[in-house]
Amino acid sequence: MKETAVLKPEEPATTGADLLVKALIDEEVEVVFGYPGGAVLPIYDSLFKQNRLRHILVRHEQAAVHAAEGYARSTGKVGVVLVTSGPGATNAVTGLTDALMDSIPIVCLTGQVPTHLIGNDAFQEADTTGITRPCTKHNYLVKAVGDLARTVHEAFYVARSGRPGPVVIDLPKDVLMNKHEYVTPPKVAVTHKSYRPQTQPDPRKIEQAIEMIANAKRPVFYAGGGVINAGPNASKLLTQLVHLTGYPVTNTLMGLGAFPASDKQFLGMLGMHGTYEANLAMHGCDVMINIGARFDDRITGNLTKFSPGSKKIHVDIDPSSINKNVHVDLAIVGDAGIVLEELVKAWKAKQPKVDQKALKAWWAEIETWRARNCLAYKPNKQVIKPQYALERLYHHIKDKDHYITTEVGQHQMWAAQFLKFEQPNRWMTSGGLGTMGYGFPAALGVQIAHPEALVIDVAGEASILMNIQELSTAAQYRLPVKIFVLNNHYMGMVRQWQELLHGGRYSESYSESLPDFVKVADAFGAKGLRCDDPAKLDDTIKEMIELKHPVIVDVIVDEKENCFPMIPSGAAHNEMLLGPDDKQSAKVSEEGMVLV
To answer: In terms of Cα–Cα distance, which of 101, 117, 60, 20 is closest to 440?
Structure first.
C-alpha cells in the first residue's frame, strides 16, 4: 500500500460511516445495491445525508450481489453491495461465489457486531471473513476507524486489478461510529503492498506465439470472458487479429460478444451445448490459441480426449489458471487486451506467410460441419418450441439497444445458441456457478446502469421463482425489465439429464403448483402476458417490448424438448449428439455421470 504521509486532513474528524461514504464517492461509485439492518444503520444514516450516491433497495441480499454483478458486467465498473451482519452477510455468499467464479469485480460492505463483541456469539454475529474467505478474491475485517478509508481504496484496487473478483470489507459497528479525519486518496492509483498482477507479456513469448500461429495448418482461436473483462478495446483487437490471420474463432459461454456473432469467421459457442463446427474444430485443430478462458470442464469434456493433436497457447492474467486443467505448450501471462495489442503489432510487423492451401482445406472441412446446421429443430404449429421463441425474440430485438441476462438451465443454453451478440458486455449469465435466480436481479442492475436500453431476462419457470421477490424492487424504481419465461413445467436441464442418465425417472423435477405468472405480475404492479400459440408469439413479444414498465411473459413451450447439440458428460468433442435421434456410441461412464 502506498502511503500519503505528506497529505493532511481536509476536514475535521467525522464518523467512520461518513468517512466510508466519502471514500466510495472518491472511488467514483454512483450506485450501491443493499438491504439495511442494525449493524449498518450508521452507513444508511450517512447515505441519507448526501445525494451523490444512489442506493437501490433490493428484497434479498443474494439479489443485491447479482444486481451489482449485472451493473459491473454491463459497464466495466466495480459493483458495490451493502448488507448487514449475520444473515445479511451469509445471504450474500451465493452471489459472492458467483462473482468469484465468473471474475466479476464487486466490493461488498458487510456490517459486523462491535469489535469488543466479536467472538461472543452476539446478536446477528457471523464469522464473515472466515465464511467468505473461500468465495472472495480477498477480504478485510476493519478493526480501527483510522484504517477504514485506506482499506476501501485498496479493496477497489484488488477487485478490479488482474483477474477481477469480489472483495468483502467487514465493518464492526463501533468502527462506523468512531470519529477520524478523512484523507483524500492520491491521484495516482492506490495499490496493494504485495498484489501486483502481471499485465505486460514477455516479448519473447509474443514472438513464439506469432511463429506458432503462423505455422498452423488447422488453427482455431478460443476466446473467453477474460477478453471481455479486459475492456471493449480487447474485443476490437481480437477481431482485428482474427481478420489479419483469416483463422476461425469460437467463444465460450462467458465470452459471447467478444467477437461479432455475424462474422463469417465465427464458429459459434463451443462446449457441452456448443455448435458442431466449433467443437469439431477444437477437436481437430493443430494449434489452439486460448485467450482469456480457463479450460473448464464444460468446455473440455473428457480431458484425456481433449484436442489430442494440438499445440496449445494459453493467454491469461491469472498464473494459477495456466496448466491447471490442461497442459499447454506456450503460456503467456498478461492482460488479454495488452497481449492482443502486442500480437496484432507483431503480426503486422512480421507479416508472416500463412499456408493458404492448408487454411483453405481447413475452412472447407469446417464448412462441411457448418452445413449440418446443428441448431436445427422440428417446428410445430401447435406447440411453441423454445428455440422458436428465442428466434422470434431475437428477430424483434436485434436492431434495438438491448442487453440479455439469463437464469440457469435449458433456457440459458438455448439463449446462448439462438441470441446473437455483436458487442461485448451485452450478455450476462451465470457461467461458473450456474446460479438459479441470477438473471432477474442481474437485469435490474443492468437496467439501473442503462435506463434507456431494453433489458431482458431469459428465464425458466423454476429459476425465476428463486428471486421473484425482486419484482418489488423493479416496481419501486420503475425499472422496465422484461422477464421472458420459457415455461416447460420442468426443471428442464434436470429433467433432460434424468431422461438420459437415469432411465426417465423424473424425481422431483416437475414444477408442481406453479403460480399464475400473469397474476403475480399484477400483484407486484407489473404487466403479465401469456402465450401458448406459435401464431400469436410475435404479437406478444411486440407488446412486451412496447410496454414501459416491468413485464413477465409466460411462454408455454414444449415440455419434452431437449437441448441439442450436446456433448454427453465424460465424452469428447467429436462424440456430440446433434438431436434426439442420435445415440451415444458408448454408455456414459461413472466418471462421466459424476461430471453432470
So the answer is: 60
